[in-house]
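ok so i was messing around last nite and threw this chain in just to see what happens. nothing serious, just curious
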Amino acid sequence: RATRLQHTSALGVAAKHNLAMETLQLWAPISFQIGVASLVPELEVHSYVLLFPKSFASFINWYTQFRPIARKILAKFRRDVEDIVKADTELARMASRITIQSRFKSPSSAFKKMVKSSKQKHELHVMLGVRLIIEERTQKSNKEVIARTGTGHVYDDGINAVRYGDDCDYE
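result:
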C-alpha cells in the first residue's frame, strides 16, 4: 500500500485523495489490528502528503525544529526525576526497581491530532510523555534489604517490611 501511495504521479487529484482517504480509514487501522502497527505511521505520512501537501510539509519543517528541543527538555526532566527518585529513601524501601521512560509524539500522530481536532501546532499539548514505572518490593526482597542494612528498627508484618532509621543503605 505504501508503494502505491508513493507512485501516484499519473493519478488526478481526486484519485490521490480517494487513495489517501481509503488508506487512512481502512488500511492503516487494519494494519494496526493485524499486528503490523509499525507500518501505520508510514501509511499515514504518505496519505497526509497526498491530502495536505503544503500543510504537512510546513508541519514537518516545524517538527524537525521542535525535535532537538524536545530531546533536551526530556533529558533534563529525566535527570530531575532521577535525582528526586534517588534522594527518596522511602521510595527506595518500597521499590525493587524504578524505570523512567520518555517519548515524544511521532510526526504522523501529532499531525493526525491536529487534523482530527482542528488544532494548530501551538495547541498541541501532548507532544512529550514521561512514564515512571515503580515495581513494588516482594516479601523476599524486603527481607534481603533488611538483612543488608545493619542497625535500625524494623517493622515486618509478614507482608511488608519497613525499616526506620537514618543509617539505611538501600540499593
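not much to say yet. Confidence is low (pLDDT under 50) at residues 146-171.
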